[in-house]
């Protein structure tokens, strides 16, 4: 019995759909190498390598539901695809790679909606939208945010250290301790990893069945949790530097600060998830 | 619409996008030979060649640069005008980290300075000014980007204008004009901004004069 006879999309529809998606991906091929170079060169963007894999996994998890959907079409699909393709043309010809890169998920979403319809899109949109996290933010936006974060991190650290018995004098982003001066450098700021942390929260929230509000809270709190973890790391580094000297700066925890913050945030997310699920379970009773 | 027709429409759109990108005329690369001419005097300010790199960092992507030191009595102003070509290529762009000295700066305060570069009060441009605190020293840097005659203080407006220039004119040459003033213990940032307001309009006028003969009036 063929697929259309039992109400499923025929194989030929899937082949056509695959060709269209391949054409879109092919159009974006020139955009990818420079993005991959940025992922490789900047440690704070290295999560970019994981994003396409996680997106593929999010789609793969839904393969049974997708296979059970009928093909259709939505009138929204075409304008969305046109918008995405226009952004790609303007971004590529106008020298704005951020615009061109950002247009990939939009074009893909428009293509799916236009060629496969809302039923299939319902299962694919999360994986496609997740690709947005692989696009590095423009430096023109990132730079002032990073500097404000450096100032904020230094100010909070300078407030907390005296409570821990560490005298400190703050001068902008410098923390003058009795035995050395520490700089809250751009790499110490957690702003560059915010995208990674939100992406992490987004993926984590999708991994198991949860009430929607729990998912939203997990995604929204990923960034503040990461920021808090980073400030705690800076405080501990300054505290250790006061009591143990330079060794506090040369250890693994400080050198791999991005990884440390990432791991601590994962632990905090898991703890928060357990708490929220308990609350959700109580509300269900 | 039937599935095959939808497929044809989408493939047609993808092909049109690819053709537009591939067949667009290349961006022109122009050398700004007139940039060497900056005024040797601005009012009572006398110029000598050069400006210290620690005060105004050199960007490796600069094609041509003029750096001068203007003096009036004990007061000093450093000026750098850098020409950047092919700014449509992100790897050749001026770096945001090389506009003013950031290394070892304990604090950097930013604010906007409204300035009338061409002397007409209606055309005031709000340019960024930063006060850099480093090793007990303070320094003010004011800067703007220029596309032909047009000066941009906002990085976002500049990038939008550059994109428009690249898209419609296929030109991507820009200038970065920086004015730096060291502050002594008694000077305030406001004193430095007064000096910038005095020096910037004639500097801009001199730049426009040097740009115009080679047909760079983009406005």
Structure description:
The complex is a heterodimer of chains A (285) and B (219). Chain A has a 3-stranded antiparallel β-sheet with strand order 1-2-3, with helices on one face. Chain A is mostly helical. Chain A has helices at 11-27, 32-41, 50-60, 63-67, 77-93, 97-115, 117-130, 139-160, 194-206, 212-244, 247-250, 252-255, 257-284, and strands spanning 169-171, 174-176, 181-183. Chain A has 2 domains: 4-136, no CATH class; 140-284, no CATH class. Chain B has 219 residues and is an alpha+beta fold. Chain B has one domain. In chain B, 27% of the residues lie in helices and 32% in strands. Chain B contains 3 helices and 9 strands, in the order αββββββββαβα. Chain B has helices at 3-23, 155-169, 189-211; strands spanning 41-42, 45-49, 64-72, 75-84, 107-115, 125-134, 137-147, 150-152, 174-183. In chain B, strands 1, 2, 3, 4, 5, 6, 7, 8 and 9 form a 9-stranded antiparallel β-sheet that branches. In chain B, β6 and β7 (137-147) form a beta hairpin. The longest helix of chain B is centred in the C-terminal third of the chain and has 23 residues, at 189-211. Classes of the chains: A mainly alpha (285), B alpha+beta (219). Chains A and B meet through α1, α5, α6 and α8 of A and α1, β5 and α2 of B.
């Amino acid at each position: 019995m063929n697929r259309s006879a039992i109400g499923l999309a025929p194989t030929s529809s899937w082949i056509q759909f695959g060709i269209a998606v391949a054409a879109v991906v092919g159009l974006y091929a020139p955009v990818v190498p420079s993005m991959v170079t940025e992922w490789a060169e900047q440690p704070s963007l290295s999560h970019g390598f994981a994003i396409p894999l996680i997106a593929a996994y999010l789609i793969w998890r839904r393969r049974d539901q997708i296979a059970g959907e009928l093909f259709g079409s939505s009138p929204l699909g075409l304008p969305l695809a046109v918008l995405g393709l226009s952004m790609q043309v303007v971004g590529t010809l106008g020298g704005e790679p951020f615009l061109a890169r950002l247009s990939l998920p939009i074009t893909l979403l428009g293509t799916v909606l236009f060629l496969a319809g809302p039923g299939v899109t319902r299962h694919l949109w999360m994986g496609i939208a997740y690709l947005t996290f692989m696009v590095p933010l423009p430096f023109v936006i990132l730079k002032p945010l990073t500097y404000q974060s450096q100032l904020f991190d230094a100010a909070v650290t300078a407030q907390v250290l005296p409570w821990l018995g560490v005298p400190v004098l703050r001068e902008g982003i410098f923390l003058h301790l009795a035995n050395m001066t520490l700089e809250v450098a751009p790499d110490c700021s957690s702003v560059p990893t915010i995208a990674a942390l939100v992406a992490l929260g987004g993926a984590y929230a999708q991994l198991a069945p949860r009430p929607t509000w729990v998912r939203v809270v997990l995604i929204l709190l990923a960034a503040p949790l990461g920021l808090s973890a980073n400030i705690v790391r800076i405080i501990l580094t300054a505290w250790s530097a006061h009591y143990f000297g330079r060794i506090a700066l040369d250890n693994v925890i400080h050198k791999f600060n991005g990884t440390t913050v990432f791991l601590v945030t994962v632990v905090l997310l898991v703890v928060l998830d357990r708490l929220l699920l308990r609350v959700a379970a109580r509300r269900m009773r | 619409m039937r599935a095959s027709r939808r497929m044809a429409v989408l493939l047609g759109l993808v092909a049109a996008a690819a053709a537009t990108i591939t067949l667009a005329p290349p961006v022109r690369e122009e050398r700004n030979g007139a940039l060497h001419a900056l005024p040797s005097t601005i009012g009572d300010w006398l110029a000598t060649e050069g400006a210290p790199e620690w005060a105004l960092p050199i960007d490796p992507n600069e094609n041509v640069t003029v750096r001068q030191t203007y003096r009036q009595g004990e007061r000093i102003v450093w000026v750098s005008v850098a020409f950047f070509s092919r700014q449509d290529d992100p790897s050749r762009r001026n770096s945001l980290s090389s506009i003013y000295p950031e290394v070892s700066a304990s604090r950097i305060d930013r604010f906007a300075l409204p300035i009338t570069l061409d002397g007409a009060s209606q055309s005031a441009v709000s340019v960024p000014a930063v006060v850099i605190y480093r090793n007990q020293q303070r320094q003010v840097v004011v800067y703007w980007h220029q596309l032909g005659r047009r000066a941009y203080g906002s990085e976002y407006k500049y990038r939008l204008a550059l994109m428009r220039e690249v898209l419609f004119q296929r030109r991507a040459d820009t200038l970065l004009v920086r004015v730096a003033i060291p502050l002594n213990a008694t000077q305030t940032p406001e004193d430095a901004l007064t000096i910038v307001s005095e020096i910037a309009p004639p500097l801009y006028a001199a730049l426009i004069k040097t740009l115009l003969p080679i047909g760079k009036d983009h406005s």
